[in-house]
Specification:
Elements: H1 2-14, E1 21-30, H2 34-37, E2 58-60, E3 69-71, E4 81-85, E5 94-98, H3 109-116, E6 119-126, E7 132-135, E8 140-143
Parallel strand pairs: 1-5, 2-4
Antiparallel strand pairs: 1-6, 2-5, 3-4, 3-6, 7-8
């Protein structure tokens, strides 16, 4: 299912979308644990996305709208990931990539986030120029 969504989104982005641009970011990582997100974290991102096993997404500054697609070298097999979250320390040219549970890995999500560390990377920004993106978790449309 994710492959189909990726292919459809890739096609949509390549038709009439704005030209992707490269920008340098400080990229850190997090998971849904209490260490990264605090106690009582509900497992829902700032955009309303309910976190699922195997999720890959990114937290970005509010200047980068929800739904924007980013290609972050070394993350998600270099496939585009959606901006679905915010963070109190994520301002300006900072990003936070999310690591969720992966049944094929011997590492915990927190170990993967720690292993990622902090990287300084050129990130491809692909603006999504649609007015609404389907939110599969809420079965509604979000407007940006």
């Amino acid at each position: 299912m994710k492959t189909i969504i990726y292919l459809i989104l890739t096609s949509i982005l390549s038709i009439g979308g704005s030209t992707p641009k490269l920008e340098k970011f400080t990229v850190s990582a997090y998971c849904a644990c209490e260490i990264c997100c605090g106690t009582g974290s509900p497992g829902i991102t700032a955009s309303g996305h309910t976190i699922e096993k195997g999720d890959r997404f990114v937290a970005a500054d509010p200047e980068i709208p929800y739904g924007t697609m980013l290609v972050i070298p070394g993350y998600n097999q270099n496939k585009p990931v959606e901006v679905l979250d915010r963070g109190s320390a994520i301002r300006g040219n900072r990003l936070d990539v999310f690591f969720g549970f992966d049944p094929n890995s011997s590492c915990t999500p927190h170990e993967k986030a720690l292993h990622w560390g902090v990287k300084y990377l050129w990130v491809k920004i692909i603006k999504v120029e649609r007015k609404a993106l389907y939110n599969k978790d809420l079965h509604t449309h979000r407007r940006y």
